[in-house]
Design a protein that fits this description.
The complex is a heterodimer of chains A (243) and B (244).
Chain A (H helix, E strand, L loop, with lengths): L1 E10 L2 E11 L3 E6 L6 H8 L7 E6 L2 E2 L4 H7 E4 L11 H11 L4 H15 L14 H13 L5 E5 L7 H14 L4 E6 L2 H7 L2 E6 L2 E6 L1 H8 L3 H16 L2
Chain B lengths: L1 H17 L1 H25 L5 H19 L1 H9 L1 H6 L5 H21 L2 H10 L4 H26 L5 H17 L3 H10 L5 H8 L3 H8 L5 H24 L3
Helix pairs in contact in B: 1-6, 2-3, 3-8, 3-9, 4-8, 6-8, 6-13, 8-9, 8-12, 8-13, 10-11, 12-13
Classes of the chains: A alpha/beta (243), B mainly alpha (244).
């Protein structure tokens, strides 16, 4: 469902993503871990067609993100970092707007609205403006926008940002329910999120992919117990290799 | 294509009518346009709307950039441009949708001056053809200002900068055709008459004044239509550039 091949992205002289390759199949949840500025968001932006790769290619559901951007956008649900939403819009209008942009009309839109309202539990804030919602609810509204068209690929940038512990548990449960026939790629700083729901982990640091595998595979490879130790070991080893 | 444009236009219109700034700007514009007309109406005592249309370009210089300054700069500042550009909509649909909403809003405000036509008709027999031509010119002038206002707004995250750039370009397009400015610049090099050349080449004023005078020429129509289309095209090119 997601195929990233030798992708590099630069901003002027800065290399944000450096020759990364991986794939995510249907029914998989892949957690994307890395410190701030590692290149996680840049990679997700490229998958979501917001940015073009400087080199390499990205394909989602068999469509190239550069040459078939519209096809890709129809098949992804994207929650950008910091959840940019129209602050002055009423929540219900905003989710409807995103649904309509995905071609949902009439009964199909109503059914999709009912589904995401229930799934993301946004009923209490439907009639509020986005700016009046708490951070956690804003995140859930963003998630509703990403899910309204029932996409086969989900790209979530820091999806649990602003959630309280109960909301985090509910989110993990939601991800597990959603993964049936979807490819889900999410980035996070929170190691526990990755350990709890991911089938596979990608570890990125300074734009380079340092680790790709299941938790057990990464533990075996590094000899370090737990994702936190694996992460620390791979990052320090990666830093040593850098000039 | 049209469904996407309508969707964006509807959202944008909602944003206009949601904001108190839009109402205040519209009210200030109509009060200024109305009072400046009434002033010349009472001084000249002629059943004619020409003074209203003659003042309009100068009022539009601050008014239209105030409408367009948030169009894209707010999207950039709030990060919602990322939401928009990852929806299955073409940049051209986004640009035309936003432009269409702004045009409709501008047309509604312009329609706010229709009571003047009613008053003139009640008092006498104004030349309705001339008034209609004037309104067409005013609409096309507003359309051009909205097009470059939107383009300039797409260049910056800062609404104030977008406003200043918009007002500056509007000033250049209007004042480069003002007789006093043309005369001064012509005086700098009388043989070459650079002021006249500039007025003919870039100013919107001679084209607009043709409409106000009742002359709907193809060249004047094309000036507004092509220049507006050019700025809209530039805006969508700019949006595509974000990806690089």
């Amino acid at each position: 469902m997601i195929r990233v091949q030798s992708v590099t992205r630069t901003y002027g002289a800065t290399v944000a993503v450096d020759d990364i390759s991986f794939h995510v199949g249907a029914g998989q949840i892949v957690g994307f871990v890395g410190p701030n500025g590692a290149g996680k968001s840049t990679l997700l932006k490229m998958l979501a067609t917001f940015l073009r790769p400087t080199a390499g290619s990205v394909a989602v559901a068999g469509f190239d993100t550069v040459t078939d951007a519209l096809q890709v956008r129809q098949r992804i649900g994207y929650l950008p970092g910091d959840t940019p939403l129209y602050r002055d819009m009423v929540v219900e209008d905003l989710v409807r707007f995103v649904g309509a942009a995905h071609g949902l009309l009439g009964g199909a839109l109503e059914a999709a609205m009912a589904r995401v309202i229930d799934m993301c539990d946004i009923a209490p804030v439907l009639s509020l403006r986005v700016r009046e919602c708490s951070t956690g609810f804003r995140q859930r509204v963003g998630l509703s926008c990403a899910l309204i068209h029932d996409p086969p690929v989900l790209l979530l940038d820091e999806p649990t940002h602003g959630f309280d512990p109960l909301q985090v548990m509910a989110f993990r449960d939601l991800l597990t329910r959603l993964k049936q026939d979807r490819a889900i790629l999410f980035s996070t700083h929170i190691i526990a999120d990755v350990e709890a729901v991911s089938d596979r982990v990608l570890i990125i640091h300074q734009g380079r992919l340092l680790g790709d595998g299941t938790l057990a595979e990464l533990e075996q490879r590094t000899g370090a117990p737990g994702l936190e130790n694996i992460f620390a070991q791979l990052v320090s080893a990666g830093a040593e290799r850098r000039p | 294509m049209m469904a996407g444009i309508r969707l964006v236009a509807r959202r944008e219109l909602g944003a206009y009518f949601d904001s108190p700034i839009a109402y205040i700007t519209a009210a200030v514009f109509l009060v200024l346009a109305g009072t400046s007309f009434m002033n010349s109406f009472f001084l000249q005592g002629v059943i004619d709307m020409t003074p209203f249309f003659e003042t309009l370009p100068y009022l539009l210089i601050p008014f239209v950039p105030a409408l367009t300054m948030r169009t894209w700069s707010e999207e950039h500042a709030q990060g919602t441009v990322e939401l928009l550009l990852t929806l299955p909509l073409l940049p051209l649909q986004l640009v035309i949708g936003k432009y269409g909403a702004a045009l409709l809003y501008f047309a509604l405000i312009l329609a706010g001056s229709l009571p003047i036509v009613g008053m003139l008709s009640w008092l006498g027999a104004p030349d309705l053809g001339l008034i209609l031509s004037g309104y067409l010119g005013a609409f096309l002038l507003g359309a051009l200002f909205l097009a470059f206002g939107q383009f300039l707004s797409s260049l910056t995250h800062n609404q104030i900068v977008a406003f200043a750039l918009g007002a500056l370009l509007a000033c250049v397009l209007v004042f480069s055709g003002h007789p006093s400015v043309v005369e001064v610049i012509d005086g700098l090099a009388p043989t070459w008459q650079p002021g006249t050349v500039m007025a003919d080449a870039i100013s919107c004023l001679p084209h607009y004044e043709a409409f106000v005078g009742g002359l709907i020429g193809l060249d004047h129509l094309l000036y507004f239509l092509l220049l507006s289309a050019f700025f809209l095209w530039l805006t969508q090119v700019g949006l595509r550039r974000i990806q690089y």
